[in-house]
Specification:
It contains 15 helices and no strands. The chain starts with a helix and ends with a helix. About 45% of the residues are buried.
Protein backbone atom coordinates (compact mmCIF):
# COMPACT_ATOMS: atom_id res chain seq x y z
CA UNK A 1 0.00 0.00 0.00
CA UNK A 2 1.39 3.38 -0.99
CA UNK A 3 1.84 6.33 1.34
CA UNK A 4 -0.98 8.20 -0.41
CA UNK A 5 -3.34 5.24 -0.03
CA UNK A 6 -2.57 4.97 3.69
CA UNK A 7 -3.19 8.69 4.07
CA UNK A 8 -6.58 8.37 2.32
CA UNK A 9 -7.45 5.45 4.60
CA UNK A 10 -6.71 7.56 7.67
CA UNK A 11 -8.85 10.43 6.36
CA UNK A 12 -11.77 8.12 5.61
CA UNK A 13 -11.47 6.47 9.02
CA UNK A 14 -11.70 9.86 10.67
CA UNK A 15 -15.20 10.24 9.21
CA UNK A 16 -16.48 6.72 9.68
CA UNK A 17 -14.65 5.71 12.85
CA UNK A 18 -11.99 3.05 13.13
CA UNK A 19 -12.61 -0.67 13.35
CA UNK A 20 -9.98 -1.26 16.01
CA UNK A 21 -10.09 -4.40 18.13
CA UNK A 22 -9.15 -4.77 21.77
CA UNK A 23 -5.70 -5.79 20.60
CA UNK A 24 -5.35 -2.56 18.61
CA UNK A 25 -6.16 -0.47 21.67
CA UNK A 26 -3.64 -2.48 23.69
CA UNK A 27 -1.05 -1.80 20.96
CA UNK A 28 -1.91 1.90 21.24
CA UNK A 29 -0.71 1.77 24.86
CA UNK A 30 2.77 0.55 23.83
CA UNK A 31 2.71 -2.65 25.93
CA UNK A 32 6.48 -3.27 25.65
CA UNK A 33 7.25 0.14 27.10
CA UNK A 34 4.45 -0.33 29.64
CA UNK A 35 5.97 -3.60 30.86
CA UNK A 36 9.25 -1.86 31.67
CA UNK A 37 7.36 0.94 33.44
CA UNK A 38 5.39 -1.57 35.53
CA UNK A 39 8.50 -3.49 36.51
CA UNK A 40 10.63 -0.49 37.51
CA UNK A 41 7.69 1.10 39.38
CA UNK A 42 7.13 -2.16 41.26
CA UNK A 43 10.80 -2.28 42.25
CA UNK A 44 10.59 1.31 43.48
CA UNK A 45 7.49 0.44 45.51
CA UNK A 46 9.13 -2.65 47.04
CA UNK A 47 12.38 -0.88 47.92
CA UNK A 48 10.66 2.08 49.59
CA UNK A 49 10.91 2.18 53.41
CA UNK A 50 7.75 1.43 55.31
CA UNK A 51 4.87 -0.74 54.20
CA UNK A 52 1.76 -0.51 52.10
CA UNK A 53 -1.33 -2.73 52.05
CA UNK A 54 -1.03 -5.23 49.15
CA UNK A 55 -4.32 -4.01 47.64
CA UNK A 56 -3.18 -0.39 47.75
CA UNK A 57 0.16 -1.42 46.27
CA UNK A 58 -1.62 -3.25 43.45
CA UNK A 59 -3.81 -0.21 42.80
CA UNK A 60 -0.71 2.00 42.64
CA UNK A 61 1.03 -0.24 40.09
CA UNK A 62 -2.17 -0.54 38.03
CA UNK A 63 -2.58 3.23 37.94
CA UNK A 64 1.06 3.75 36.95
CA UNK A 65 0.64 1.15 34.20
CA UNK A 66 -2.52 2.82 32.88
CA UNK A 67 -0.81 6.20 33.04
CA UNK A 68 2.05 4.78 30.95
CA UNK A 69 -0.50 3.42 28.47
CA UNK A 70 -2.16 6.83 28.32
CA UNK A 71 1.20 8.42 27.49
CA UNK A 72 1.73 5.88 24.72
CA UNK A 73 -1.70 6.54 23.23
CA UNK A 74 -1.20 10.32 23.27
CA UNK A 75 2.24 9.86 21.73
CA UNK A 76 0.81 7.77 18.89
CA UNK A 77 -2.00 10.28 18.36
CA UNK A 78 0.40 13.18 17.92
CA UNK A 79 3.07 11.24 16.02
CA UNK A 80 0.73 9.56 13.54
CA UNK A 81 2.30 11.48 10.64
CA UNK A 82 5.79 10.33 11.64
CA UNK A 83 4.67 6.74 12.30
CA UNK A 84 3.16 6.63 8.82
CA UNK A 85 6.51 7.01 7.05
CA UNK A 86 8.79 4.96 9.33
CA UNK A 87 9.21 1.27 8.54
CA UNK A 88 9.13 0.11 12.17
CA UNK A 89 5.97 2.10 13.07
CA UNK A 90 3.77 2.23 9.97
CA UNK A 91 1.78 -0.81 11.11
CA UNK A 92 0.70 0.87 14.34
CA UNK A 93 -3.08 1.24 14.86
CA UNK A 94 -3.45 4.84 13.59
CA UNK A 95 -1.33 4.77 10.39
CA UNK A 96 -2.82 1.38 9.51
CA UNK A 97 -6.32 2.91 9.74
CA UNK A 98 -7.59 0.64 12.51
CA UNK A 99 -8.02 3.47 15.02
CA UNK A 100 -8.70 7.10 14.17
CA UNK A 101 -6.63 9.95 15.66
CA UNK A 102 -9.76 11.23 17.43
CA UNK A 103 -10.36 7.85 19.06
CA UNK A 104 -6.72 7.64 20.15
CA UNK A 105 -6.86 11.12 21.68
CA UNK A 106 -10.08 10.36 23.57
CA UNK A 107 -8.67 7.03 24.76
CA UNK A 108 -5.42 8.60 25.95
CA UNK A 109 -7.13 11.46 27.77
CA UNK A 110 -9.61 9.12 29.48
CA UNK A 111 -6.81 6.85 30.70
CA UNK A 112 -4.76 9.86 31.84
CA UNK A 113 -7.51 11.39 33.96
CA UNK A 114 -8.70 8.05 35.31
CA UNK A 115 -5.25 6.85 36.38
CA UNK A 116 -4.25 10.13 38.04
CA UNK A 117 -7.52 10.59 39.94
CA UNK A 118 -7.61 6.96 41.09
CA UNK A 119 -3.99 7.05 42.27
CA UNK A 120 -4.62 10.30 44.12
CA UNK A 121 -7.83 9.18 45.81
CA UNK A 122 -6.85 5.63 46.74
CA UNK A 123 -3.10 5.93 47.34
CA UNK A 124 -1.91 9.53 47.91
CA UNK A 125 -2.09 12.81 46.04
CA UNK A 126 1.67 13.29 45.87
CA UNK A 127 1.97 10.11 43.82
CA UNK A 128 -1.08 11.14 41.76
CA UNK A 129 0.41 14.55 40.99
CA UNK A 130 3.74 12.93 40.11
CA UNK A 131 1.97 10.61 37.67
CA UNK A 132 0.11 13.55 36.12
CA UNK A 133 3.41 15.41 35.65
CA UNK A 134 4.99 12.33 34.07
CA UNK A 135 2.17 11.95 31.54
CA UNK A 136 2.37 15.68 30.74
CA UNK A 137 6.16 15.52 30.41
CA UNK A 138 6.03 12.61 27.95
CA UNK A 139 3.03 13.72 25.91
CA UNK A 140 3.70 17.46 25.77
CA UNK A 141 7.32 18.25 26.65
CA UNK A 142 8.84 15.29 24.83
CA UNK A 143 6.36 14.29 22.11
CA UNK A 144 5.00 17.67 21.08
CA UNK A 145 8.10 19.79 21.64
CA UNK A 146 11.48 18.12 22.10
CA UNK A 147 11.14 15.20 19.69
CA UNK A 148 10.80 17.42 16.62
CA UNK A 149 12.96 20.33 17.72
CA UNK A 150 16.26 19.10 19.17
CA UNK A 151 18.68 16.17 18.82
CA UNK A 152 18.78 16.14 22.63
CA UNK A 153 15.16 14.95 22.63
CA UNK A 154 16.05 11.56 24.07
CA UNK A 155 18.30 13.01 26.78
CA UNK A 156 15.72 15.41 28.22
CA UNK A 157 12.62 13.44 27.28
CA UNK A 158 14.12 10.30 28.80
CA UNK A 159 13.21 11.66 32.22
CA UNK A 160 9.60 10.62 31.62
CA UNK A 161 10.63 6.98 31.34
CA UNK A 162 12.81 7.28 34.43
CA UNK A 163 10.12 8.61 36.78
CA UNK A 164 8.13 5.34 37.41
CA UNK A 165 10.34 3.94 40.21
CA UNK A 166 10.08 7.30 41.96
CA UNK A 167 6.28 7.19 41.62
CA UNK A 168 6.30 3.66 43.04
CA UNK A 169 8.44 4.89 45.93
CA UNK A 170 6.12 7.88 46.48
CA UNK A 171 3.11 5.55 46.54
CA UNK A 172 4.49 4.06 49.77
CA UNK A 173 6.14 7.06 51.42
CA UNK A 174 4.17 10.02 50.06
CA UNK A 175 7.48 11.63 49.11
CA UNK A 176 10.76 10.96 47.26
CA UNK A 177 14.31 10.51 48.51
CA UNK A 178 17.92 10.33 47.35
CA UNK A 179 17.60 6.54 47.05
CA UNK A 180 14.61 6.84 44.71
CA UNK A 181 16.44 9.52 42.72
CA UNK A 182 19.30 7.07 42.12
CA UNK A 183 16.79 4.62 40.61
CA UNK A 184 15.64 7.47 38.37
CA UNK A 185 19.26 8.31 37.50
CA UNK A 186 20.04 4.75 36.40
CA UNK A 187 17.24 4.81 33.82
CA UNK A 188 17.95 8.43 32.85
CA UNK A 189 21.64 7.74 32.07
CA UNK A 190 20.75 4.44 30.38
CA UNK A 191 18.28 5.99 27.93
CA UNK A 192 20.66 7.91 25.59
CA UNK A 193 23.04 5.03 24.75
CA UNK A 194 20.07 2.66 24.49
CA UNK A 195 18.13 4.80 21.99
CA UNK A 196 21.11 6.23 20.12
CA UNK A 197 22.32 2.70 19.36
CA UNK A 198 18.93 2.11 17.76
CA UNK A 199 19.04 5.53 16.05
CA UNK A 200 22.37 4.63 14.42
CA UNK A 201 20.86 1.36 13.23
CA UNK A 202 17.66 3.06 11.97
CA UNK A 203 19.18 6.35 10.82
CA UNK A 204 17.40 6.23 7.46
CA UNK A 205 13.98 5.92 9.10
CA UNK A 206 14.47 9.02 11.22
CA UNK A 207 15.82 10.94 8.24
CA UNK A 208 12.74 10.06 6.18
CA UNK A 209 10.44 11.15 9.02
CA UNK A 210 12.33 14.39 9.61
CA UNK A 211 12.98 13.61 13.28
CA UNK A 212 16.21 15.35 14.43
CA UNK A 213 17.82 12.36 16.09
CA UNK A 214 21.46 12.86 17.01
CA UNK A 215 23.01 10.76 14.17
CA UNK A 216 21.03 12.73 11.57
CA UNK A 217 21.92 16.14 12.99
CA UNK A 218 25.32 15.85 14.66
CA UNK A 219 26.63 12.93 12.65
CA UNK A 220 27.36 9.29 13.40
CA UNK A 221 30.81 9.93 14.90
CA UNK A 222 29.49 12.47 17.37
CA UNK A 223 26.75 10.01 18.33
CA UNK A 224 29.31 7.29 18.96
CA UNK A 225 31.31 9.65 21.18
CA UNK A 226 28.20 10.44 23.23
CA UNK A 227 27.14 6.78 23.51
CA UNK A 228 30.56 6.00 24.97
CA UNK A 229 30.48 9.03 27.29
CA UNK A 230 27.05 8.17 28.71
CA UNK A 231 28.08 4.53 29.10
CA UNK A 232 31.14 5.57 31.12
CA UNK A 233 28.86 7.56 33.44
CA UNK A 234 26.20 4.83 33.59
CA UNK A 235 28.57 2.10 34.80
CA UNK A 236 29.25 3.63 38.26
CA UNK A 237 25.70 4.98 38.56
CA UNK A 238 24.47 1.40 38.18
CA UNK A 239 26.59 0.38 41.17
CA UNK A 240 25.39 3.34 43.30
CA UNK A 241 22.63 1.43 45.18
CA UNK A 242 25.31 -0.85 46.63
CA UNK A 243 27.63 2.05 47.44
CA UNK A 244 24.76 3.85 49.20
CA UNK A 245 23.95 0.77 51.27
CA UNK A 246 20.49 -0.20 50.09
CA UNK A 247 21.66 -3.05 47.88
CA UNK A 248 23.81 -6.01 48.89
CA UNK A 249 27.15 -7.41 47.79
CA UNK A 250 25.59 -9.67 45.14
CA UNK A 251 24.05 -6.62 43.47
CA UNK A 252 27.33 -4.70 43.77
CA UNK A 253 29.35 -7.41 42.01
CA UNK A 254 26.72 -8.15 39.35
CA UNK A 255 26.06 -4.47 38.56
CA UNK A 256 29.79 -3.83 38.19
CA UNK A 257 30.18 -6.76 35.79
CA UNK A 258 27.10 -5.75 33.79
CA UNK A 259 28.39 -2.20 33.59
CA UNK A 260 31.72 -3.48 32.31
CA UNK A 261 30.01 -5.47 29.54
CA UNK A 262 27.95 -2.39 28.65
CA UNK A 263 31.18 -0.37 28.36
CA UNK A 264 32.84 -3.00 26.17
CA UNK A 265 29.86 -3.03 23.79
CA UNK A 266 29.74 0.78 23.72
CA UNK A 267 33.45 0.85 22.90
CA UNK A 268 32.76 -1.63 20.09
CA UNK A 269 30.14 0.76 18.69
CA UNK A 270 32.68 3.58 18.91
CA UNK A 271 35.38 1.57 17.11
CA UNK A 272 33.30 0.00 14.32
CA UNK A 273 32.10 2.86 12.17
CA UNK A 274 31.19 1.49 8.76
CA UNK A 275 29.21 -1.24 7.06
CA UNK A 276 27.78 -4.43 8.51
CA UNK A 277 30.17 -4.65 11.51
CA UNK A 278 28.99 -1.20 12.65
CA UNK A 279 25.34 -2.17 12.26
CA UNK A 280 25.85 -5.38 14.21
CA UNK A 281 27.69 -3.56 17.00
CA UNK A 282 24.82 -1.06 17.37
CA UNK A 283 22.19 -3.79 17.43
CA UNK A 284 24.19 -5.81 19.97
CA UNK A 285 24.45 -2.82 22.33
CA UNK A 286 20.75 -2.03 21.90
CA UNK A 287 19.69 -5.58 22.78
CA UNK A 288 22.10 -5.88 25.70
CA UNK A 289 20.99 -2.53 27.10
CA UNK A 290 17.47 -3.92 27.57
CA UNK A 291 18.85 -6.92 29.43
CA UNK A 292 21.15 -4.66 31.48
CA UNK A 293 18.35 -2.50 32.84
CA UNK A 294 16.07 -5.46 33.53
CA UNK A 295 18.88 -7.30 35.30
CA UNK A 296 19.75 -4.38 37.60
CA UNK A 297 16.17 -3.90 38.75
CA UNK A 298 15.58 -7.66 39.00
CA UNK A 299 18.63 -7.96 41.26
CA UNK A 300 17.40 -5.10 43.45
CA UNK A 301 13.99 -6.77 43.71
CA UNK A 302 15.44 -10.21 44.35
CA UNK A 303 17.67 -8.99 47.15
CA UNK A 304 14.75 -7.11 48.70
CA UNK A 305 12.56 -10.22 48.65
CA UNK A 306 15.29 -12.44 50.09
CA UNK A 307 16.02 -9.91 52.84
CA UNK A 308 12.32 -9.71 53.64
CA UNK A 309 12.03 -13.48 53.98
CA UNK A 310 15.13 -13.71 56.17
CA UNK A 311 14.11 -10.79 58.41
Amino acid sequence: MSLAERHDMMENAAWTGGDGSVGDYIALMKPRVMSLVIFTAFVGLMLAPGSVHPVIGAVAILCIAIGAGASGALNMWYDADIDEVMSRTRKRPIPSGKITPEEALAFGMTLSIGSVVTLGLLVNWFAGAFLAFTIFFYAVIYTMWLKRSTPQNIVIGGAAGAFPPMIGWASVTGTVSLESFVLFLIIFMWTPPHFWALALFKKGDYETAGVPMLPNVAGEMNTRHQILAYSIILAPVGVAPYIMGYAGLAYGIASALLGLVFLVLALDVWRKREGTPAQKACLKLFKFSIFYLFALFALLLGENLVTGVMA
